[in-house]
Design a protein that fits this description.
Layout (H helix, E strand, L loop, with lengths): L4 H38 L1 E5 L13 E6 L31 E6 L2 E12 L4 E5 L2 E4 L2 E2 L1 E11 L4 E10 L5 E6 L12 E2 L4 E5 L17 E2 L3 E11 L12 H4 L11
Antiparallel strand pairs: 1-2, 2-14, 3-4, 3-14, 4-12, 5-6, 5-11, 6-7, 8-9, 9-10, 12-13
Length: 257
């Protein structure tokens, strides 16, 4: 028996509705993806801290948001550096003391986070552990001590409050004042570049190292703003019952200075 015409039309309507529903779902997924990608590229992007080079300001296991609009946009503002941008658009320089994320000049696939110490034209040098900017020693004041365990032994580190010429205040950590990067040559920051240093001064690969050197302004990704999550790595992914104890609740929401 041939199908009735009404049954055929009903089947057609069902098929159209089904295809329309699938199409609408795909459209919504694409829109959501575009919105998320635009937000990540233009507004803010999350990053996590895998190393201790910025201790005590940032700890391993911290998660933070970086504002992408703070210094304008370059190709590195976008995933896979896919935007055909030369230099920066709406560019502005960071201030000394700001914590920034940037692409490593020697390997632009890697993201680094450090503190801006020198601006274009600045003269930077470390003498006996004390940072000098344009010939003047940066003021530092001891505010405490802390024991640091490296897995084999415990070392006492000193915490200093460091005050930049522009009044920016932050805390750094030093073990001694006679280690590898505690006495450096005089660096003159080239035009269009920045000089970066980690707050963990004796345990940071930064502009004092040939592996990093001066950082082109083009390589800036954004300014570190605040922490949205932090954990102390005391629990594994599968130890769900330990998760609540591993979270550093007191760090969530902290601004980065």
């Amino acid at each position: 028996m041939a199908p009735k015409n009404s049954d055929y039309k009903s089947s057609q309507r069902d098929s159209i509705k089904k295809n329309s529903g699938i199409g609408e779902t795909i459209r919504m997924i694409l829109i959501a993806g575009i919105v998320a990608l635009s937000f990540r590229s233009l507004v803010a992007e999350p990053f996590n801290i895998p190393s201790g080079s910025m201790i005590p300001t940032l700890l391993v296991g911290d998660y933070l948001f970086v504002s992408k609009y703070a210094y304008g946009y370059s190709k590195y503002s976008f995933p896979f550096a896919m935007a055909p941008i030369k230099g920066r658009i709406a560019s502005s320089l960071p201030e000394r003391g700001e914590v920034v994320v940037f692409r490593l000049p020697s390997d632009v696939s890697l993201d680094y986070i450090k503190r801006v110490v020198g601006l274009p034209g600045d003269k930077i040098q470390v003498i006996d552990g004390i940072l000098h900017i344009n010939g003047a020693a940066v003021s530092r004041r001891q505010i405490g001590e802390v024991d640091v365990t490296n897995g084999f032994s415990t070392i006492r580190a000193i915490l200093y409050e460091e005050i930049f010429p522009n009044g920016h205040t932050h805390v750094i950590e030093e073990f001694r004042d006679d280690l590898t990067f505690d006495n450096t040559p005089l660096y003159i920051v080239p035009e269009g570049h920045l000089f970066m240093m980690g707050d963990n001064r004796d345990n940071s690969r930064d502009s004092r190292s040939q592996g990093v050197g001066f950082v082109p302004v083009e390589n800036l990704i954004g300014r570190a703003e605040f922490l949205f999550f932090s954990h102390n790595n005391s629990s594994s992914l599968f130890e769900i019952w330990k998760w609540p104890l591993a979270i550093r609740y007191n760090r969530i929401g902290q601004g980065i200075h």
